[in-house]
Specification:
Blueprint: E1 8-17, E2 21-27, E3 40-43, E4 46-49, E5 52-54, E6 57-63, H1 64-69, E7 80-85, E8 104-113, E9 118-123, E10 137-140, E11 143-150, E12 154-159, H2 161-166, E13 177-182, H3 184-194
Antiparallel strand pairs: 1-2, 1-7, 2-6, 3-4, 3-7, 5-6, 8-9, 8-13, 9-12, 10-11, 10-13, 11-12
Length: 205
């Protein structure tokens, strides 16, 4: 589990194409300070497992399912990526509960700069819209953000200078693809209510 608070901007140091998978090598000295083989690190919001470590770099296996459903299929050597270690019982929950399981891929539609923040508009698969509410939580490329306004196929977020400087969202441009994870609590509530409501919304309890 993660909180959506990016700890480090890492760099893709190498990619090994294995046909139906990738071996992704990341340079990131900070998050490796207390990490070992088998530990989880979120890369642009995707939970990956450390399979190999060499100094300040580590390697993870990215299976076809992840390549099909996230933006990791498009990363290149030299790209910067958002990194966060898995939480511990002592970790402050500075963002919200994040699983590192991407629900869909969105696209940056536009950026509107202001003096002290920047509003970013992001498209999303329409099936995710029911999980978004104004002032609710959304994870974009592993960053916990507050939804400003949500519609059926897009939403906006306001990025403060800290987020712009310390995550990849500061440099994402219109057309760039981003990983999205909706609030898992909303999904659990939907499933629980689904057992109580018939298709017309009549309570069966």
């Amino acid at each position: 589990m993660f909180t959506g608070i990016v700890e480090e901007l890492g760099t893709i140091a190498g990619i090994e194409d294995q046909g139906d998978a990738l071996r992704l090598t990341v340079h990131s000295p900070h998050v490796l300070a207390d990490a070992g083989l088998g530990d989880s690190i979120a890369v642009n919001g995707c939970c990956l497992t450390i399979a190999q470590r060499d100094g300040d770099t580590w390697t993870a296996d990215v299976m076809q399912e992840t390549l099909d459903k996230t933006s990791l299929a498009g990363v290149q050597p030299g790209d910067r990526v958002n990194l966060e270690r898995a939480v511990t019982p002592q970790t402050r929950l500075g963002g919200h509960i994040v699983q590192g399981h991407v629900d869909g891929v969105g696209t940056i539609l536009g950026r509107t700069p202001s003096e002290h923040w920047e509003v970013v508009e992001v498209s999303m698969p329409s099936e995710l819209s029911r999980y978004l509410v104004d002032k609710g939580s959304i994870t974009v490329d592993g960053v916990s953000l507050t939804v400003v306004e949500a519609t059926d196929d897009r939403f906006t977020v306001s990025l403060i200078p800290e987020t712009l400087a310390r995550t990849t969202l500061g440099s994402r441009q219109p057309g760039d693809r981003v990983n999205l994870e909706v609030d898992v609590i909303a999904k659990h509530v939907e499933k629980l209510l689904g057992h109580r409501l018939d298709p017309e919304g009549m309570d069966r309890a």
